[in-house]
Hints:
This protein is mostly helical and 600 residues long.
Amino acid sequence: MSTAEAPTTINAGIIIRRVLFFILLIGLSLLYLLVTFRGLDSPKGMEQAQIAREIARDNSFTTKVLRPVSIWQNGELRDGQPIIKDANRDTYHAPLHPVLLSWALNFVGGDDADKWRMTENDTVYKLDRVIAATSVICFLIAIGVNYLLISRIFDPKIGGVTALLMLLCDLNWKFSQTGLPQMFMLLLFSCACFFAYRAVEATAEGRIALLPALISAAFLSLLVLTHWLAIWIVLGFAIYAGFFLRPRGAAGLAALGFVLLVSLLPLLKNKQYSGNMGGTAILAVFNGLGTSEDSVMRTYNLQDAYLPLQNLPFKIVRTTILQAGDLFSNLGSLLTAPLFFLALLHPFKRKSIANFRWCLLLMWFFGAVGMAIFGLKDGASTDPNQLHILFAPLFAGYGLALIAILWSRLKIITEIPPLRNAHFVVAVFISAGPMVLDLPRQIREVGKAGTVPPHWPPYYPAALNTGLASQVREDEIVVTDQPWAVAWYADRTALWLPNQVSVFNELETLAQAQDSPFAGLLISPYSHSSRVLPGVYNEYQEWAPLVLDGWASVSTRSGPGTLAKLDPELRTILTRYPTPVRFVDSLLIFWSVSPAASAQ
């Protein structure tokens, strides 16, 4: 009787657990999208969103964010005077994520910005929610792929616990709300690993592994087209495939060939519009090895940019090792993820399980080197270059398997059967801690926020979407310290504030002659409130009086221009932009060329 009822009991338990999992999945998705969502907060996320909108408008890969260095590259390419309008070709971002977002925007009619204008009482831009929803969908599909993969590597129990860890990982949800491509990358990387493991299985069984290795390489190629930094992960896979997958060498060369093939078109376009295949994306190396990526993007002549290359190998090794300090948080604070490195010491009986971990290790190691070279901010777990999160599910799966093996060897398990799965319960509860502890705070903040923008300072979507957009014509250019926000929320072309005042004057004259005049200067808390006072001066130097003018006006209870007009060069500029439009007192201020502009 008992043997006949056992399968029914097991099936019923599995069904109940899966139903509860899907209820939790749907509930958290709605909670993060409809209740706690605070809008996009990543500059590169906003920039990719506005590129996606241009793609949806059939404007190809153009951007409304103008970098001074891009204008300079255009002039060098033409071997003469640059054309500002031709510098709007994006050569910084990988193309695949904006394409995905453009489909989502097309689906909801997001290409028409006028239909999505905010009201004064709106705190979240509705199209922000569309971008976040796209990322959440990719994340949920990635959970399913990882469940199938880890169940194949180990067993469905470890696969199910890993899926639950992913769902309760606070960092995954944070990434889904930034506009960054990490959740789409997680999906592509998980698919690549699924077929990579199939190739490892085939090799362990003495079979040819070329087909699954090629499919894995194809997904890795798509990963590179989503974030250029992923080429380092491909290098790790190519080395492993070249030495350990049958036929030896062919799979590794095929992986590199796939990447070269699919990347050739965007790289050639970069060369066409910037003069080199790396475009402006290659300048991101200043983020890791230089002083500031922002600074070099605001530079008009690359000969003025200094990249210190002394002791380069030592720097790379040092910054790679330093990532260990933030590794736990960068892996989503999943308790078992760092245990992957201990699992490297365990002699797994199945060859495929033992061999696949070395494939993962090589991909992760090369990815860490890439992050060290191109920069990963300390303590910034949602940094645009953060690739550790892609490895978190598989690392957690290996860690769970190691704990399960060690736990099963304890005598107390045989004496107290209810403790059989206690290790899984502890791992889930501790890993879910950051989410469980932070969710009540997020919900309380939603209730208290009222009409205050969630990411103010430095972003005030409604002020840009309605106030700024109404004062700037579509053929005019706004010079600003947050061009990505102006391009996305106001749907206006924005020039990143150049490093030098003389460059501003030169580009102003050039823009006027090319029928795309400057409409004014927008100074926001991005420049004056996101770093300490010496940092503001070091970053903005000649512009420091204008950048700090808002705080000076607030502090002295005087009108805008109190500090800026003390500088002769800035005083001359402000005579051409005489009307200060204050969106938020003097902290978000637009110096308009139009004397008829009304103060807000």
